[in-house]
Amino acid sequence: MTSPPVITLYFVHFVFDAGYILLITDIPTFFNSILDFDLELAGLLNMAPHLCVLCMTVIGGLLGDYLISHDKLSILGTRRLLNTFCFGLTAVFIIILGYVYNSDLSLTIMVFAFGIYGFKFAGVNANVLDIAPFHSGIIIGMMISIGSIGGLVATTLLGVLTETNNTLRQWRVEFWTQAALQICALLAFFIFGSDKPQEWAKPPEESADIERQH
Predict the structure, then answer these.
(1) What is the percent of the chain where pLDDT is above 70?
(2) Which of 9, 19, 45, 161 is paired with 198 by a 20 to 30 Å CA distance?
(3) For residue 209, what pLDDT is reported?
(4) Distances in whole angstroms, Cα of residue 16 to Cα of each of 82, 104, 118, 207
(5) DSSP single-letter state for residue 201
């Protein structure tokens, strides 16, 4: 479970959690301290990011199934496309968030930045079943564990940047850092991602058949 495509999934999920945790736990502080907008008073708007994730997850799944079943794109091409939507668009939205001074517009951007992550489930998460279906539970467990470290790193970095100097400039440093990580995840999967079952992940009888054929 240390082949390049699997390690890539670990890294991508690390980046995902770093961005996800930033948006879900730290952005309310940004709205409150920088934009002077209390999200707790926004009522149903607090549900909007999660509803957006749900919608994008469904849309991503339907889009992925359509592209693969109608031979519009290969499995790997489809995973790359959805991954590009997920991390590429999120990177753009996170950067824009640091340069918008209208709280309503910033909230809309935050909702979309959060929601776009829904494409990940039909991209990176589904890719686990492409490359190691018989070990998917273990790999996903590792992805979640490693991802939690990403969330810790993101919040720690933000704390270091804003603990004594909570300014828009410091938040922009965090946003640009997060955006750079998102692009790195996008490129990593584009270069090292695969849709081929890994040799070590194949059932013993299948591996034996391959050896006999050679």
Answers:
(1) 90
(2) 19
(3) 52
(4) 14, 25, 11, 33
(5) G
Q: Are 8 and 193 in contact (CB under 8 A)?
A: yes
Identity of residue 21: I
- In whole angstroms, give the CA distance from residue 40 to residue 37: 9
Q: How high is the mean pLDDT of the chain?
A: 88
Q: Express each pLDDT in 94-153 by its tens digit.
A: 999 999 988 788 888 988 998 999 999 999 999 999 999 888 899 999 999 999 999 899
Place of tokens 């590009």: 84
Residue 125 near residue 57, CB atoms below 8 Å: no
User: How far apart are the C-alpha atoms of 10 and 5, rounded to whole Å?
Assistant: 9
Helix axes 124-131, 136-162, angle to 10 degrees: 150
Q: How far is CA 3 from the centre of its chain?
A: 21
Residue 47 identity: M
pLDDT at 214 over 60: no
